[in-house]
Amino acid sequence: MAWPRTIRRWAVCAAWVVATACQTHAKAPVSGEIDGSRSTRTTGESRPALAVVEREGDARGALAVAVVTEGVAPDRGALVGVALAALVEKRLAVDGIEATAVGGGDGWRVRALVASSGQAAATLEAIRRALLTPVSEGEPALAHVAAKVAALASRPRATGPLLDMVRCTGEAYASGADGLSSPSELERWRAASHGFGRIAIGVAGPAQLADAVALALARGRAWPRGALLEGSSRPPEAASSLVYDASGDVDPGAARIVVVARTRSPERAAAAAALLGDPRGPLASRLAALEAPARLRSVTATAHVHGGCLAATLDLDARSLSGAAAARIATAASLARQETAVELSDVAPQADLGHALATLAADPREAAETAAWWALAGTLPGGADEAIGIELLVGLATARDAAQPAAFARGDEIRSEIDRATLAWHATVVDAKTRVERGQGEVWVLVASPCGTSAESTGDAGLSAAVALSATLQSADVAGDAQAEPYVSSEGVGVLVHGASHKGETPQAHARRLADLAARAFAGEAPTSAHFTRARTALLLHASEADARVMGMLASALAPGHPSWVLPAGTAVGLASASDDALKIRAAALRAGPLRVAVLAIVDGAQADAAVRAVDRWVARRPGESRTCPAVTSPPPPRPGTYAVERSAGAPSEALLAFALPPRDPQALANASWLAAALDGPEGLLARSFGSTDGARAGVPSWSSGVVGAPLAPALMIRVRAPDAAMDAAVAQARALLEKLRLEGPQIDDWNRAASVMSAEGLAAALQPRQRVVQVWLSQPAAPSPSLDALRSFSASFLHDEALLVVAARPARAEPPSHASAPSRRPR
Question: Closest Cα to residue 301, out of 275, 269, 324?
């Protein structure tokens, strides 16, 4: 079941119509003519604003009126709006008008279907009479008002902290003062509310219908003025936290959290609500991924006559709160407050959001009602539009066996935990590395754990790679035109995302979109079983290939007990042993450890910062926690010797020759890389040793050389392939070359060739943004180029034959038939 997303259909307003709604000196049209704009009609001085939704195809058009009651008997809560709505609804029914009126905390509205321009004008006149006729003793509508007032009194009562939520949402909750003292009191409310400045009219239908209503307003009598609307008494203010007793509203032992956010503009609240309420959006996903998952119940945006308000409600069940309840409630509450603040700050609402929302309504009555209410409320004067004030309401339901109410017993503890959790959320957790490359076509974001495969052993080799690939598959499902790739190495595992900007997308929004894709899948959400199955299947297929099995044998010899230090994609043994539960545990461990993000921005530093903030918000944290990689025990030393791997019949034979190097030694790696460059290539030392420059003629070995396993279990490796009959001789030639290098070292021509190769490889890597973002993530200074003497010293120190590891992969040799087992022939 999808979590609900709610934008109040009648309580959301747009600032673009404020001048029309509140202007007291609008110039009257000449000779009853009207302004023919699509979304509004100017109808003259001292007349309500008219908001228009032009549309065709409906069986009927619709007319709606919205009325603001803010400031009229504020101590009576929703009673004012409910009573006035009931009064007008009954008066219209007496006049034969079928209309529906509903009251709320800060206003009310009425709507009706109309079949023609004439009926629309007649309905408007009937609504005017129902609004402006004074209340009299004994009129039939009073019985209907009394029934509605009694129904309001029976509704849940909003007191204490809940009043803040009710004032935000504008809902009709009982206030404890829900009795109507006399018809004269109702008349005072009517006179104050039903006047110009507090009323807006909405019409939905063909243009001629809107024109008819506009003309009727323009030619009709002026409207009396309602009570002046004063500035809001609740501007955005500093964040606060309140704990209340929610017993009866939620199950015993459970909790409900409401985030109440006030904004200067209603458009900002409404636009953010659509994002926060998305069941697949960051808020719902982050809440669901907590140690104590919270369910997003609703997100409600309300527009008031001065500013907007947003209320996000989430629930935590009693089972999730069975241990460390205060800390778990505080974590969810602080997360929800942070996510609400982020969306409210970052959202860029459209200026005509009210009209846009009205056009989305399927029912013309809904469209007219929404347009009317949007025409009433506006922006709170003063301050920046981005200013927001956020309040947390935490409701605790007392457990059945509790001696006293939970809110009383744990209120101080929860408020203290919220303060600690808020500080934790404000502190940046992710380690950020950024670079700005102006003019590039795509932003690149790499989110990964620097723990890499260091914690893996033989039994789970490849599990971290499975987490990274699962997260990538999960991210790719929603990536759109962005590209998601796994990043898997012994130094880090994570997700790499890159993509171009969308039309109309700001640089910051572009970066946040890509950062959300990477961080959500890797740092925010646990991988699904379906994605894990796909990832493990792909990795198992790779690990079962002949080359991977040979490298797996070498990895086991170089890093005994830790083959993924050399082969980070894992081994068949490790991947086959992995279960869904093991994957979830590894994914949780990677999320709980240190995380690093690298960003290649293409506009400016602000774009890079936006990506970093987007990643950081996905990282769950607890107050006082320490994020470190698991301690790695020192593995046994490499085991020199010869190892055999059987290959399928007909496959070429292959041998790997490797010399182990010291772990995490940049200069040793640089020396080995330069020596590998001198050995490799069509003019390298191996080519000269084998007497060929192309390695392609039949019977002639082919070769390659390089460094593997860095930085945890590095080794200089030579790979030789040859027909089986020639393999022993090829290995002997390679060993003789290595012994010569140990004794004599490389020559100046070998050093020059290595320098040329390393320069070309460095240039090729620098031309690839994929390689650049990885280098930014690694942030490792390049080791200085070794001198010829350094290469000779390295060769003499490491190329000892007794330190050599050899992995020989050959097809099984057919055994000759045994005469003893040959079938006997019986004589005839």
Answer: 269
Distance CA 407, CA 791 (A): 72
* Rounded distance between C-alpha atoms, residue 269 and residue 273, angstroms: 6
User: Is the CB of residue 396 less than 8 Å from the CB of residue 36?
Assistant: no
As a whole-number percent, the residues of the chain with pLDDT over 90 amount to 62
What is the spatial distance between Cα 373 and Cα 385, in angstroms, rounded to a whole number?
A: 21
List the beta bridge partners of residue 707. Answer: 716
Rounded to 5 degrees, φ, ψ at 594 are: -65, 145
Q: How far is residue 202's CA from residue 66's CA, in Å, rounded to a whole number? A: 8
What residues contact 573, with CB distance under 8 A and at least 6 apart?
Answer: 458, 459, 461
Name the architecture of domain 431-617.
2-Layer Sandwich (3.30)
Distance CA 674, CA 668 (A): 10
Fold of 240-354+377-424: Cytochrome Bc1 Complex; Chain A, domain 1 (3.30.830)
Provide CATH code, domain 6-219: 3.30.830
* pLDDT per residue as tens digits for the range 143-195: 999 999 999 888 777 666 677 788 888 888 777 666 777 899 999 999 999 99
What residue segments make up the domains of the chain, in order of their start?
6-219, 240-354+377-424, 431-617, 641-811
Q: What is the mean pLDDT of the chain?
A: 86
Q: Specify the 3-state DSSP secondary structure of 79.
A: helix
Domains 6-219 and 641-811 share a fold: yes
Nearest C-alpha neighbor of 171 from the set 103, 89, 248, 259: 103
What is the secondary structure of 422-462 as a DSSP string?
HHHHHS--SEEEEEE-TT-S-EEEEEEETTTTTT--GGGTT
Cα distances (Å, whole numbers) of residue 621 to 293, 335, 528 = 14, 9, 22
Which structure tokens are listed for 481?
A: 């035109």
Question: Could you give the CA distance from residue 318 to residue 420 in angstroms, rounded to a whole number?
Answer: 22
**200 neighbors 172 (Cβ within 8 angstroms):** no
| Range 641-811 classified under CATH 1.25.10.10 | no
Q: Which residues contact 310 (CB under 8 A, 6 or more apart)?
A: 168, 259, 260, 261, 262, 263, 269, 272, 273, 276, 299, 300, 301, 302, 340, 344
Q: At residue 815, what are phi and psi to the nearest 5 degrees?
A: -80, 140
pLDDT in tens, 601-651: 999 999 999 999 999 989 887 777 788 998 887 778 999 999 999 988 877
Q: Give the confidence band of 402 by pLDDT, cuts at 50, 70, 90.
A: low
DSSP states of 624-673? T----PPP-PPPPPP--EEEEEEE-TTPPEEEEEEEE--TT-HHHHHHHH
Q: d(Cα 731, Cα 689) in Å, to the nearest integer?
A: 11
- For the chain, helix, strand, coil in percent to 5 are 45, 20, 40
248-101-3 Cα angle (round to 5): 45
Give the global pTM: 0.76
- Tell me the per-residue pLDDT of 541-589, one tens digit each, with 9 for 90 and over: 999 998 999 999 999 999 999 999 999 999 999 999 888 889 989 999 9
Predicted confidence at residue 8, as pLDDT, reads 33
Placement of tokens 């539009």 in the chain: 385
Q: Taking a C-beta distance cutoff of 8 angstroms, is the pair 495, 448 a contact?
A: yes
Structure tokens at 12: 């959301």
